[in-house]
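Hey, quick one: can you model this chain's 3D structure?
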Amino acid sequence: MMAGILDGIPPRHVTSATPHGVLNVMKPAGCTSHDVVAKVRRLLEVRKVGHAGTLDPDATGVLPVLLGKGTRLSAFLLHWDKEYEAVLRLGQETTTQDATGAIVRDCSVQELRPETIHGVVAQFQGEQQQVPPMYSAVKVAGQPLYKAARAGKTLDRQARPITIYHIEVRALALPYVTLWVHCSKGTYIRTLCADIGQVLGVGGHLSQLTRTRVGPLHLDRAWPLGEIGRGDDLFEHSGAFLDLDEALAHLPVVVVDPAVVGKVLNGTPVSDVALWSEDHRAHPAETLIRVKDDMGRLLALGKWAPATSDVSSHQLQMVKVFGETS
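Sure thing. Here's the predicted structure for all 326 residues.
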C-alpha cells in the first residue's frame, strides 16, 4: 500500500534533542494514518510516535502526529474541531459510503435542481445524531465494526451526538458536489455524504476528502511527509510543530512555587495556598489546568478539587504529569 508513496524516503539523523509535541503532517493519499506514524518514527528517529485523529487511506490533509511526550496528549486533544473539503458523488450508493466500496445503487441525478441541493445541504447544519458507518473503528460489543463489515455482517449501531458548525456548497457540477464542512470530533464525512444523498432521494457517497484543519493545525502550514528532515527543522517550519504547552494553549494556567515542583512531578496534590494563580473559583471543578514552574515550563495537567479534610478549601490534583523539566 505504501509503495511509491512513502517508500524511498531515506532516514535522517536527528541532531537535536527529541522533540515533544504535535507535528502537523500533510498526509498523502494511499496510506493509512498508522503508515504515516511509522514513517515519521523512522525519519526523525523518535521512539514514541502516535497520532490524533485518523484519516482514511484515500483521504489527504492534516494529520496531527504526536512526538515523544506528545503521545500523552491524545486524550486531551480529542475536543479539537475539524474542517474538511469533501466531494460528494450523488446518484451512487456504495457499501463503504466512499469510492472504495462496491456500488449498490445507481440513480439518475438529472432532475436535481441546484436550489434543492443547497437547501438539503443546509439542513445538516447544527447539532444532530449520526449513526457511525459499518466500515469504522467504532466498537460494538468489543469488536470493531469494520471487522464485522468485512465478514459481511451489519450490526446495530447507536447514533452519536455530533455538531456540524457550518456546511456549504463550494462547487456544483452534477453528479459532483464540493462541500466545505466545519464539524465536531467524531463526525464521519462519509456518513454525512451518504445521508445527504439519501435525503435528496438519489443516494450518494464520498468521492474525495481533504482535511484542511484540526484545531490550531492548518493545511497551509502542514509539512508534506516527503519533506520531513532533521529534528532541527521542526522549529524552522512555521506552524508545523506545537510543543506541549502550545498544543494545550486553550487551557488556563497556574504557576507553582518551586517548593512544590517535586510534589507536582510525583503526581501529589498540592494546596492552592502554594500556588501563584488567578482565583481558582474562576475555573469550575474538573476543568483541566496547565501546571507550570516559575520558569514557565509545563510540568503537568491538573484540576481543582475540594480538599478531603476541608470542603471549603481546594487543592490541585494532577491528571497527567509530563516528567522532569530539564
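One thing worth noting: Confidence is low (pLDDT under 50) at residues 1-16.
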